[in-house]
Design goal:
This protein is α/β, with parallel strands linked by helices. It is built from 18 helices and 8 strands.
Length: 402
């Protein structure tokens, strides 16, 4: 409160979260001093995460539109006409494939797992936290595995699910989620009966240097936080810049990415921020209703405590099970609405599998994502801080003779 009163500016970070501050969390302050409130959506540097991290794609872009995008990312929009060029689409998909081969080699070297570069590379890399819902992702993988085992004849485009994350030292549920991901990977990756249709990889020691390899290789970018919980996100922007298509909720900067690329070039699912906040205020969400009425979900949740992925140790993932259905006193069951959004997420994933079979259409959407990423440069973010908050004058640096 003192910071808001004494400070010059209150930054909501992304458009959606600024609105939440103004309408709900800090409504009284906003009514008293609306001039203090603003949003400066986060940005990323294209010089690190494209020019340096993805040289194949960077060189291709420069060959098509020149190198002005390196210092002015808005110029990346010049790629838009290329989406109608079949040869350009083929070139893009070949670059993506080469980047997937590079990542496959990294995974083989560091994890000892063989992954198919022709499969869909579905990647979720970020801090491990319950609201970011890595648990939703791995529960869905367990669901897919069940489906493939029960219906081996079903049409299914091969998937490689890749995670990277670090958990805070004392964050038990986050660490249990990492353990679950690796335990599911041990079962799925070693089941020859599924013919390699599904692979699961957890990247150790996730950091910027291996993130560059991951962003460049991704087909699908997982941005699946519970709506209203993510202030902005920047991984979503890094994936977008590298030609991955976002699978996400209407949360954080996903909202602005959706506005930039349009509904046809992003996969949106799940409850809105308003719906989530309404459930939290009314205390009217009961995950048992979903658990008891959806046999597929019930089976997946039960597999947390029936020993399927824990060598018959029924207690190893008990805390994750309890977080969904049996919270400790004072806590809320399924606080981040994992079961509530599960079916919508599974349906969006199914659409991805179908869409990817049309490589030309996929390439068009991917290139459009790159072409609409100009807004998300940190150059733009910093300039907005300079203009609206810091009120600084530009200094011209004379580089002649340097």
């Amino acid at each position: 409160n003192m910071a808001i009163i004494a400070g010059f500016s209150v930054n909501g970070v992304a458009k959606l979260h600024t609105e939440i501050l103004e309408k709900q969390e800090l409504k009284d302050f906003y009514q008293m001093m609306p001039e203090k409130f603003n949003n400066k959506t986060n940005g990323i540097t294209q010089r690190r995460f494209l020019a340096h991290g993805n040289p194949l794609l960077a060189d291709w872009i420069t060959s098509k539109i020149g190198d002005g995008w390196i210092t002015d990312l808005s110029q990346i929009s010049k790629l838009k006409p290329l989406v109608e060029d079949e040869e350009a689409r083929r070139e893009f998909m070949e670059i993506k494939y080469q980047n997937k081969v590079r990542l496959a080699k990294y995974i083989k070297e560091h994890n000892g797992i063989d992954v198919d570069p022709h499969s869909i590379f579905d990647i979720q890399v970020k801090r491990l936290h319950e609201y970011k819902r890595q648990l939703l992702n791995i529960l869905h993988i367990m669901y897919l595995y069940n489906q493939i085992k029960e219906h081996p004849e079903m049409s299914f485009y091969p998937r490689t699910f890749i995670f990277g994350a670090k958990a805070a030292a004392g964050y038990l549920r986050a660490k249990e989620t990492i353990k679950l991901i690796n335990s599911v990977a041990d079962v799925v990756n070693n089941d020859r009966s599924i013919n390699g249709k599904l692979k699961v990889v957890f990247i150790e020691d996730y950091r910027v240097s291996n993130a560059e390899i991951l962003f460049a290789a991704a087909d699908v970018s997982e941005q699946i936080s519970t709506a209203s919980k993510e202030a902005s996100g920047t991984g979503n922007m890094k994936f977008m810049l590298n030609g991955a298509i976002t699978l996400g909720t209407m949360d954080g900067a996903n909202v602005e990415m959706y506005e930039e690329v349009g509904a046809d070039n992003i996969f949106i699912f799940g409850m809105s921020a308003d719906e989530v906040i309404a459930h939290e205020q009314h205390h009217d969400y009961n995950p048992y209703d979903i658990y008891n009425n959806d046999e597929d979900i019930k089976k997946v949740v039960n597999q947390l405590v029936d020993g399927t992925y824990s060598h018959n140790d029924r207690e190893l993932f008990r805390e994750l099970y309890n977080s969904l259905l049996n919270p400790q006193q004072g806590q809320v069951a399924d606080r981040y609405f994992i079961l509530a959004d599960f079916r919508a997420y599974a349906n969006a994933q199914k659409k991805i599998g179908v869409y990817y079979t049309n490589k030309s259409a996929w390439a068009k959407s991917a290139i459009l994502n790159i072409a609409h990423s100009g807004k998300f440069s940190s150059d733009r973010t910093i300039q907005e801080y300079v203009d609206d908050i810091w009120k600084l004058d530009k200094i011209e640096v004379n580089t002649e003779g340097c």
